[in-house]
Amino acid sequence: MILEKGTVLNNIYRVVTILGKGAMGNVYLVERVKDDKKFVVKELFFTPQAGLDPSTAKEIFFREAEFIAKFDHEGLPKMYGVFSHGGKDYLVMDYIEGKTLEEIINTSEGPIKEDDAIKWTVELASILDYLHNSFHQPVVYRDLKPSNIIITPEGKPKLVDFGIARYYNPDKNTDTFNYGSPGYAAPEQYKGRGQSTPQSDIFGLGVILFQMVTKYDPSLKPFIFPSMKGLNPSVSAELEAIVKRAIQLEPLKRYISIMEFSEALMKYSGTSSSYEDEKKWKVLPNILAITGKRLAWATIAVPIFSWLIMILSYNAGLISSEPVQYIFTLLSMFTMAAIFLCPAAGLCFSIAGAIKAQKNINISYEPVNEAIGCNVFIGGFLIFIIIFIYPNFRNARESGKLAACESNIKNIATALEMYHTDYNNLYPDSLEKILEPSGNGYMKCIPECPNKKTVIVPCGKKPPAYEYIVSKDYKNYTIWCNGTHKGAGLNAGYPQYTPGQGLFLK
């Protein structure tokens, strides 16, 4: 029974017209009631002509739904749901505008132009390659024929009707039913002859190319193929050889893979698959987006790592050593560069991904959107750090420098006291007297102030980081830092030390 025009299914879809009839059901063009958007609805019912019991037919129907739900290729339909209505099951798919290849062949005055035929074959090979290599096991289509191929107004082929598609089972030796359409189905698709494999799809695609360039109907005499050049004198011997290998009756004599067949055609004609070209447009935005996200997270990781190293250096008192000062300077520069360059670069990569994504309306924007969102979030985080946290960190850093400077002065004072004990309670007239080898080895060298404004010189070389004045009687002295520590959040002045007063600020 054919559904009447205007029939509303599941309170969602309104029947526009019937598109096709089959032994297991009909295919309808429908409109979504709320917005008139067009879809295709496939109906399941049972007739004696189907040759299948209801349970098997239902299994095939829902297997097709399962396959379509997993597809993510421009040349394949998209599924929008399965529902029951009036005791029948329905599968909802997107509506693909265009004509079937069968209609194009039948209405053509002669064979299809060789360039068009090869182009469509190469693009169909790209679709089949996706089916053969994108799942845990190859999906064998098994029903290649012109009526299952729609050519869009843009001239791109789409593959529909996955009713008899299945996963390749390496444990099986033969198919238990005859699957496929006479003339297009490979010999192994007939009951007891062998098992359907990806090579079966190579046979079907080769037959379709044969038909397009000769207009010969293979269903008239299955497995009998006249000379292509005899049917169409314009066919070259090279093209006939390529097609002849694809339609060999023995699977092992065909091409190893569908892409080997496609590559032979592309080499012959210089044609490429627009689906493969679009795949590049699809992959590139995601690569750009992922790069943007990684740069965004580097914006946080690098400063945190650098700051951690610097904080540990302060706590360990290593900042007073000359090599650590250089490392500290480099880390500071590296951190500041990361703070400003990483989010900027990450956002640029993410925006570039969004621009590339616009080249194809069917691209998944999620990675691009995530990258942009990530960079916006981290940008806000950095603004928060700059405004609220960094000033406190800077003060803490300056306080650390002051603490290291005070430690240096105390170490120098300790060496002077040791000299004072050894030399009749007198202090030296210069700091050089406490150094090796001129002195008694109280200090190896005079340390440098860790403040970045202090002139960094090799240990023991002039000008010294610390000034030293001894009293005329050599019984008292003053030592102070010649740098500045005003940014430490303390009173302005220089850390100073005298034996009587100890450490103080001038």
Task: Report what the structure shows.
The chain is of the alpha+beta class and 506 residues long. The protein has four domains: 8-94, Phosphorylase Kinase, domain 1; 99-271, Transferase(Phosphotransferase), domain 1; 277-399; 401-505, no CATH class. Helix content is 44%, strand content 14%. It is built from ten helices and 15 strands. The protein has helices at 54-70, 101-107, 114-133, 198-214, 228-231, 237-246, 258-269, 274-316, 322-357, 366-422; strands at residues 8-9, 13-22, 25-32, 38-44, 79-85, 88-94, 99-100, 139-140, 149-151, 157-159, 166-167, 466-470, 477-481, 495-498, 502-505. It is elongated and about 125 Å long. Mean pLDDT is 78; it is low at 317-322 and 357-365.
In short:
The chain is an alpha+beta fold and 506 residues long. It has helices spanning 54-70, 101-107, 114-133, 198-214, 228-231, 237-246, 258-269, 274-316, 322-357, 366-422, and strands at residues 8-9, 13-22, 25-32, 38-44, 79-85, 88-94, 99-100, 139-140, 149-151, 157-159, 166-167, 466-470, 477-481, 495-498, 502-505.
